[in-house]
Amino acid sequence: MVIHLLYCFVSLRTPTFAILALTGLFLFGCTPQISSKASHTQLSLSALELQEGGIAFITPSTVTGQEEEKQAVAFVFASTLMNERPDLRIVPLPETLSIINRAGLTNEYKQMFQEYKDTGIFSRQTLSRIAEASGARYLAQLKLAGFSQRSSNRFGVFGLRMIETKSATIRLFFQLWDGRLGVITWEGVQELSWSEEKIAEAPITLQTLMDKAAKDIAARLPR
Fold first, then answer.
1. Euclidean distance between the first and the last CA atom of the chain, given in angstroms as a whole number
2. If pLDDT is split at 50, 70 and 90, which confidence band does 81 have?
3. pLDDT for residue 131 is more than 80
4. Residue 112 and residue 206: Cα distance in Å, rounded?
5. pTM (2 decimals)?
6. Which CATH topology does 32-220 take?
7. What are phi and psi of 157, to 5 degrees?
8. Domain with CATH 3.40.50 in the chain
């Protein structure tokens, strides 16, 4: 099929056949190229403890310039985790925030994150109160350490941009804090690169990479 299309392009040399040929090449060679590196440290968490305790998501942190992505990061990750690990009780971020507000912990929650920016430590007392209010022993904190998108021309003909190489990378940290003890009980880091030949203008989205990264991390959680 590919050889036939190339022959049409070279021999007939008309715009119609050239476009058909290049389109055919794209359709038969558009498999995404994915590079993934993941590592984790299981400090004190067992599968039984995780199943019995449950996970509540708290507000993610991001690198400068990506602050607007916090809600999207938490939403996609929590949704994917619920699909991949139906054996776990998951409290998504919107539900956790509502619980915090109802419990009158808003100012304390804000102070906890201000201290975290300076120390990398969450207040044990605040964690304990959030865990008690949410009914989930473990609190999940995500950090989007990096996200970028790129695009470069791959091939064009007759002044038309036919194929572009779309690529994106993400670096994500995931920590589980024990709300009872105030300690990190599990953490992992995921680095993911995604490259794809595309005719469409649409870039590779954060949601696409987050879904893949969340699946990889979910597979490493104790079960």
1. 46
2. very high
3. yes
4. 27
5. 0.76
6. Rossmann fold (3.40.50)
7. -150, 140
8. 32-220
